[in-house]
């Protein structure tokens, strides 16, 4: 039995800003190395091999639902799966992240980014989504990487702290930049639509590293492609979440991309986020993942602070401000889920 029982509909209601019984909670990277049951079945190969095994990917997606009773599941996959599947030449190195043999440099590299055919290129993703849709007691969140964040991996060739090559291409060759983002937006749209067709009931677009950009650069070079991603999945009628890290300065611009829910990292308290986005903004977040490594009393105080700053607003999906750190004690995350579930609006 999970520590708390998941409720079928509070997550979807909160994403719409509608009244519901209790605050929904899930954790980015809830499936992953913090769970002993994950480490036990994950194996040692590339995560891309684990993702390509629907039985394994289904089980890994279910693990945190069983353990924590979270109100939504996130598909076990990765933002580089579509570019990997069309043969761009990307792998995910354990402890490092996505690496690319031949980084994106010039116009000829656009030919390495053909359109995605989900049934032919990523049948395993669709199979995993279908089996999860049949088994899960809670909604499944499908996802894709936003054009900027995926572009940063393709251009840098490895995780970067400065995004120097990415910004140099963006500022130095805008035509090529926009052509690249256009292809990556198409990949995201096709992938997201196929996940919803297969049974995903919400979508999250990860622009994890967009916070590296100054607002005018985000607005000019990134927002149009991200806005198109959200517009071209709007007809699917599932909630769309837009998330990035270090995005305090660009939060209003990210909201302008048109998602239903804006993800907020731990740097911007939820009350301040609503001052920036308006009182009706639907927010996801934003407990500092590192706070989960503190003594339990400090974790409890941090959870209470997030809930207090939300102020009983129905448009709140409790989450961490970024992914679960691998060294996190799963018992603490279970306690966090219980605290959120025990909370009543207005408390
Ligand atoms: O619960 C979940 O969120 C699981 C599904 C998921 C994974 N990656 C599995 C994964 C999701 C939603 C992602 C998205 C993803 N991948 C993002 C956006 C989210 C974020 O954290 O900002 C990004 C930037 C990536 C790229 C990536 N993949 C990184 C930076 C890493 C970490 C490298 C490492 O080993 O520390 C990965 C690998 C990865 N993807 C792991 C998991 C569970 C961990 C390593 C593994 O088990 O092999």
Summarize the main sheet: 7 strands, parallel
Helix proportion = 40-55%
In percent, how much strand structure appears in the residues? 5-15%
Work out the count of structural domains. 1
Mean pLDDT: 96
Question: From N to C, what is the helix and strand string?
Answer: HHHHEHEEHHEHHHEHEHEHEHEH
The tally of helices reads 15
Unique ligands? coproporphyrinogen III
Q: Tally of extended strands?
A: 9
Low-confidence stretches: none
Broad CATH class: Alpha Beta
Structural class: alpha/beta
Termini separation comes to 27 Å
Task: Tell me the quaternary state.
Answer: single chain
CATH topology: the name is TIM Barrel
**Biggest sheet, strands in spatial order?**
1-4-5-6-7-8-9
Radius of gyration (CA) equals 19 Å
Question: Which architecture would the CATH scheme give at its second level?
Answer: Alpha-Beta Barrel
Overall spatial form: globular
Written overview of the protein:
This protein has about 350 residues and is α/β, with parallel strands linked by helices. It has a single domain (about 5-340), classed as TIM Barrel, CATH 3.20.20. It is built from 15 helices and nine strands. Strands 1-4-5-6-7-8-9 form a seven-stranded parallel beta sheet. Strands 2-3 form a two-stranded antiparallel sheet. Strand 6 (about 240-245), helix 12 and strand 7 form a beta-alpha-beta unit. The longest helix is centred in the middle third of the chain and has 25 residues, at about 175-200. The relative contact order is 0.15. The mean pLDDT is about 95. Bound molecules: coproporphyrinogen III. Coproporphyrinogen III binds near residues 30, 79 and 98.
């Amino acid at each position: 039995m999970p520590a708390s029982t998941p409720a079928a509909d509070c997550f979807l209601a909160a994403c719409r800003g509608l009244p519901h019984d209790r605050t929904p909670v899930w954790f980015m990277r809830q499936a992953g190395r913090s769970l002993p049951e994950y480490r036990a079945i994950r194996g040692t190969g590339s995560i891309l091999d684990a993702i390509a095994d629907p039985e394994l990917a289904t089980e890994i997606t279910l693990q945190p639902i069983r353990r924590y009773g979270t109100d939504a599941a996130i598909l076990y996959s990765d933002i580089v799966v579509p570019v990997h599947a069309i043969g761009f030449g990307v792998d995910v190195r354990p402890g490092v992240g996505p690496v690319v043999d031949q980084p994106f440099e010039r116009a000829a590299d656009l030919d390495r980014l053909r359109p995605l055919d989900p049934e032919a290129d990523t049948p395993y993703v669709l199979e995993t989504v279908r089996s999860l849709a049949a088994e899960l007691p809670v909604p499944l969140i499908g996802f894709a990487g936003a054009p900027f964040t995926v572009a940063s991996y393709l251009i840098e060739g490895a995780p970067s702290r400065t995004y120097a090559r990415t910004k140099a291409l963006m500022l130095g060759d805008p035509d090529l930049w926009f052509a690249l983002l256009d292809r990556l937006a198409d990949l995201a749209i096709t992938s997201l639509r196929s996940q919803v067709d297969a049974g995903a009931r919400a979508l999250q677009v990860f622009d994890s590293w967009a916070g590296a950009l100054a607002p005018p650069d985000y607005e000019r070079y990134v927002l149009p492609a991200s806005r198109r991603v959200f517009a071209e999945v709007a007809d699917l009628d599932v909630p769309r979440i837009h998330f990035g890290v270090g995005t305090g300065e660009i939060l209003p611009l990210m909201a302008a991309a048109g998602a239903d829910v804006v993800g907020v990292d731990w740097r911007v308290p939820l009350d301040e986020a609503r001052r920036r986005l308006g009182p009706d903004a639907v927010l996801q977040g934003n407990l500092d993942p590192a706070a989960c490594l503190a003594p339990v009393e400090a974790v409890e105080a941090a959870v209470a602070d997030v809930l207090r700053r939300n102020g009983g607003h129905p448009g709140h999906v409790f989450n961490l401000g970024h992914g679960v750190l691998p060294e996190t004690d799963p018992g603490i995350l279970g306690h966090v889920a219980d605290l959120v579930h025990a909370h009543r609006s207005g408390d």
